[in-house]
Amino acid sequence: AQSVTQLGSHVSVSEGALVLLRCNYSSSVPPYLFWYVQYPNQGLQLLLKYTSAATLVKGINGFEAEFKKSETSFHLTKPSAHMSDAAEYFCAVNRDGFQKLVFGTGTRLLVSP
Amino acid sequence: SQTIHQWPATLVQPVGSPLSLECTVEGTSNPNLYWYRQAAGRGLQLLFYSVGIGQISSEVPQNLSASRPQDRQFILSSKKLLLSDSGFYLCAWSVAGPGQPQHFGDGTRLSIL
């Protein structure tokens, strides 16, 4: 069965520092992988998706993620954090060959001045 | 462009009362539709999904039900709410086909007293 694991329920960075949010997946079939961001009391917004094309995927707001099959990872990065990046981030993988998604438990990103 | 609307944004209901949350999608036809619940500090739990009018699949046994009376309308209901039904409810849609991302509404915060 497909699953994702997000290491670290909270990640703290200073403004301008590198952001690295970790996601490891488990899938018996070639996966489709997604990163979403959620601001307080709002729905989830798609940041980027991996669908077996380029392994380095660029998304919105300066985020990108690299698919590494050998490490079963899909970590999210941003070179320089902004205060507005403070939010919760979810990694997800497709499930059962359908568009049902399995979500990780989320990582809350805290950005300090 | 496609949009998704959920209402109400917040709802406070007494235990034992009925529930009806509505979700509508604009700008697309025959979308897949999903209801999720997000408990505080936890990930997303898929409650129901639908691939067409009148076609509802339940993911977990519970006190809730879903209906899809029209192509782009998805309703979450309960006859008698329990305290455990409190949470943040999210509706989402996707285009049919592998690798398609889900797009979320702004959610409904449900508090049961």
Question: What does this protein look like?
Answer:
The complex is a heterodimer of chains A (113) and B (113). With 113 residues, chain A is mainly β. Chain A is built from no helices and twelve strands. In chain A, the strands form three sheets. In chain A, strands 2, 5, 6, 10, 11 and 12 form a six-stranded mixed β-sheet that branches. Chain A has a four-stranded antiparallel β-sheet with strand order 3-9-8-7, with no helix packed on it. In chain A, strands 1-4 form a two-stranded antiparallel ribbon. The radius of gyration of chain A is 13 Å and the shape is globular. The relative contact order of chain A is 0.33. Chain B is globular, with a radius of gyration of 13 Å. Helix content of chain B is 0%, strand content 57%. Chain B is built from no helices and eleven strands. In chain B, 35% of the residues are buried. Classes of the chains: A mainly beta (113), B mainly beta (113). Chain A binds chain B through residues 32, 34, 36, 41-46, 49, 51-52, 90, 94, 97, 99-101, 103-106, and chain B through 6, 32, 34, 42-44, 46, 49, 88, 90, 92, 94, 96-107, 109.
Topology summary:
The complex is a heterodimer of chains A (113) and B (113).
Chain A: E1 3-5, E2 10-14, E3 19-21, E4 24-26, E5 33-38, E6 44-50, E7 56-58, E8 64-68, E9 73-78, E10 87-95, E11 100-103, E12 107-112
Chain B: E1 3-7, E2 10-13, E3 19-26, E4 32-38, E5 44-52, E6 55-58, E7 65-70, E8 73-78, E9 87-94, E10 103-104, E11 108-112
Parallel strand pairs in B: 2-11
Antiparallel strand pairs in B: 1-3, 3-8, 4-5, 4-9, 5-6, 7-8, 9-10, 9-11
